[in-house]
Structures are given as C-alpha cells and as structure tokens.
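Render this sequence as a predicted structure.
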Amino acid sequence: MSKIRILPDVVANRIAAGEVVERPASIVKECLENALDAQAHQIDLAVERGGKESIRIRDDGEGMTQDDAILAFERHATSKIRTAEELMAIQTFGFRGEALAAIGSVARVTLTTKLHGATSGTEVCLEGGKLRHVREVAAPGGTEILVRDLFFNLPARRKFLKTEATEAFHITNLVTHYALAHPQCGFTLQHNGRQVLAVTATTDLRARAYQLFGANMLDSLAPVEFAQGGIAVGGFVSRPHVQRTSRDGQYLFVNRRFVRDKLIGRALSDAYRNILPPGVFPAAMLFVEVPPDMVDVNVHPQKTEVRFRAPQQVLESIVTAVQQALGRSPHFAPFPAAATPPAHPSTTAATSPPTGPHSPSAPAVHAALQALAPPPVAVPASPGRNERQPPPFFTATPHPGAGSVSATPSTPTLPTPEPPDEAATRLHSILGGRPRTRCAGAARRAHPTRPTSEPHPPDGRRTDVRILGQIHDSYIVAADADGLLLIDQHVAHERILFEQRVRALLARDVLVQMLLTPLVVDLSPAQATVFDALESELEAAGFRTTRLAGRTVAVQGVPADLGAEDAKTLLTELLDALASEQQTVSREHFLRELAASLACRAAIKVNMNLTPEKMTWLVDELFQCAQPTNCPHGRPVILRFDMSLIERGFKRT
C-alpha cells in the first residue's frame, strides 16, 4: 500500500495558513493589499481585542461578481496573473491566490461585495474552510470582509498569539506603513471602538507624513530625491541629530510594497557611516522604485522580502541618494528642550523627535549664556525682538591663561585665506536658507575686536555670522540671525581633516615616511585575516609592511602625517574594528575608517586656545565640508541655540 497520498484541501489550506496567517496583522496585510489592488480610495478597519475576536475591513474598490466572490476562496484562485511569465514582472501586491483560502480555513469569514452600478451584492460565509451560505444582499459598492474568532479550530495556534496590546500594535504599525505608501487613499482604524488612526486622501507624501507623524517629526527629516539607471529613490531620512536605538523608525518600500529588506537597511547604514555613532540608527521613509522585472517579490510566504536582480546598483543608488539629501540640507543639532520648560508638553511620542545620546546638558547652556555678558550692542529690530544682542567677548589678544594639552603634537599656524564663494553657498543651506554673501570669518578679519556691519538684502534681514570667542578654550561661540552656534573645535577640525584625507586616499595621493626602525606588530587571528584581505589597500594608504613568520608583521613606513608612536596603535585598532563587522570590507569602507582614525589623531584638541585667525579659518573650512554637522564618529560638530529658546528662557514670549 502506498504511503504517499495527496492531502485533502482543508488540510492543505491549514498548512498554508501556517505560512500566510502568522497573527491578526497578517490577515490585515492580505486584505489591505487586495483592497489596494482593487483601486480603493477609502479603506476602513475596525478591530476587536487586537484582532483575536474580529477584524472588519471595508473598501470602496471595484467589488466582485457572485461567481468571483465564491471562487476567491479556492486555493490558487487569483485575478492578478495568468501566465508563468507574469511572475517575472509582478505589478500587483497579491498574486498567489492563497490568502483568502488560508484565512477561511482558520476563522469564521463573511465576505460582502458588490460591483459599482450593480443592483445587489453578494454575501459569502465560511467557517473553518467550509462554505456555509451564499446569498444576495443589499450593499454599497466595494468589498467588506469580516474575520471572527481567529484560530477557533486550532486552539494550539491561538495560545501562541500575544497579548491584545501587542497584536493591536502590530496592526497599527502595518496600517501606518500602507497609509504612508499610498497617500492617494484614505484610511481609518478603530480598536475596541476607539479611533486609532484617520487620514484623508492626499496626493502629497509630505502631507501624508504630516497626517501620520506630525510637524515635529517632519522638521527633523531631509527630503530624498534621486534617479539613475532605472532606479528611483525618494522619501525622507532623518538628520544626524535624530538617533534611534533600533530600526523601528525605518519605513522601507519597494515599488510601494512594504518590505523588511536587509539590503536597504545596509544601504542606510552605509549612507550614515562616519555621520552617526555606532549602535544607533536613523529614521527613514524610503521608497525605492525599480522596473518590475528587476525585482523578485515571490521569495517569502508573506511577501515582506524581495530580491533585486542588480543588488549592488540598488545599494549604491540608495547610499548616493541619502548622502546627497543630507548634504543638500544639513541642519545643526538643537540644544535640548529640557533647558527650559516647554510651553506645551508633547501629547504623543510619535510627534516628538528622539534626542541623541550626545545632547548637551542644561549647565552647558547656562555656561554659554554667562560667557556672553553685556555690554550690549544694538541690532536691527525685528518683530517680537526689539532688545539688544551681546557683543563678542574676546579681543585679538590671545588669552593669557590658555590651557595646555599633554602629548599633543605641535600644530602649525593655520592659514587664513579669503573664503571662496562656495562657503557662502554652504552657509545659505545650513543656516536656515537665508542668503549669505560672506562667510563667518570675513567680518572678523576686517575688525577683530567688534562686529562689522554686513550688507543687508532688500528684506532687511541680517546676513552675517559672527565669531564671538571660545568657552574653556574648547568650544567656539558664534552668532547669527537665528541665535547662537556652539562649535566643538576638535570635532570640527576632525571633520575637515577627514574629508581631506578621504579625497587623498581615494586618489592614492598619500605621502609616506619610512621608519628608521621598523615596528613589529603581532596580530590576532582575526586581525591577520583582515590584514591579508587588505594588504594592498594598506600599502596604497601609506603603510609599508612585510609579513614575517606566522602572524607577525613589520611596519617599515607609515603615512607622513602619522607619528611613528601612533602607527602601531592605529593599525591594530583599525583591524579590530573591521574584523568586528564580520562582513566583506570594501576598499572605500576601509579608506574611510582609516581617514577617520588619522583625522582624530591629527585634529586640534580641546583646552587649546585659538587665535581669531585660527577660529575664522576653522569655521570657514567647516562650512565647505560636504557634511559639517557631525564628526566621522557621529558626534555633533555644531549645536544651535535658537532665539526662540533664548527668549523663552528670559520670559519674553
């Protein structure tokens, strides 16, 4: 007697349900995709007890005939595709024809549907995969599906469902994703009779993001717009001061399909490399559009993973798109709102931008204000701001008590060239979009002891940025029309040197100094593996090495701007960092890590007094960097203290 047999349909459907129906949110996902494929303009959802008790989804899409409504619950019955060739260029969300059959086999389902213009609709009722009745009913155009008592016939599966709050969270998160991806459609969501989400149809992604997350979240995002080689990347990404401890704030879509894709996540991390510190993640609403034949969506039971035909091209496009977005509109990290009590506390966590781990404390803010003491200098009046601004507190004479730094290499006098026009362009994009005709240092060179009157545009707004001096020989204080800027001189110089060294290393324009006595370095097995993979790149970067016995390496030459005493430490730290990432290291990744290490060691240190000329040069060079807001290790370079916050602190608003 044969041991192999074909399973009955009811058993096969329950097996399929194990893949398709993981939790109530899985049902919501399949029904939402069906509604969107039916060209719905309004989708209304009502959920009871996290979806365990009931899920009702109503749309105003095309609707179905009675025959199609019955056939929809058969396995592999679909209107989305007809031939195998269409699987290679899928343009709809659904295509397998398994979802309704699987849902109907593990719940009590009632489907009500009507074609627009038809005289009556159809109601189809199933329980545990068995058809109970089909009848004509009065119904509006579109489709409504009611799913009750999920896993009523599989009590073991029902026990594995999470708490009501957890299941409700997954449903809300899913609906938020689809509402974000389809602004042309209105969505409402109710849980236990309480409205959780309600957004009206719009044609603008920014308007939809505002509906879902609020203005505070939008203010912390940079728009992304990029297209090349048939790949388009759009949406929004967070500015560097927004730092999250998980990827929960990343909404990723491929051809408007919600996905959890490792490639896109990796591309985001690569784009923020040398901008965010390790262990934190950016927020993103990222939409990748590729031709349908360049992506395979038929690789996961729930269709949440995809495979690209040209993954490297997609990765490079995303990295370029995000880096261009951050470079086009860099914004300084704000001082924390906790410095003064907020006028109106935030009501929801979703509308409050997260605070980075490197935000300054309130005492630092008060110290900055105390350093900027009277006498005041009058400035042009503006609405709501008719008081006076403090002048620069430092003179051209260096501070007699300048702090010293131990083990700090001598720093040559920094040049003070006239800033090129590009610096004014950088200032225009960085400092709130106001047209700036001169860079920060221009006025200081003309009159180092007092501010110079800068030309004013026709609307009368100030156009100058004035350097005021230093705090504790570590932080440069500057002012503009929007308030105060506090600049960390070490990380500012580090960012400048980093970008210079990246360009030199990529161009293989590196000077080498040979050592009189070679350095002998004993590598660990992990370090030796990375060294073997990158030996040629190390040589191109200025390291002259010879492999001795075993894992011992002799370093005979190092980059010219690296001290011999630092070469051994830098080399081992760099190999350790690359080994810990446990992935193939690209040439550019290696060179950027090396440039970051070199820049950190060569940059000017804290507790170092700077002359006006050095501060001017530093600020001018910083504003010409591609990413002046963060150092290569992710720390903020500039903190902004807005006038609105200053005025609130002095009770003037």
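Summary. The two ends are 89 Å apart (CA to CA). Residues 338-421, 423-463 have pLDDT under 50 and may be disordered.
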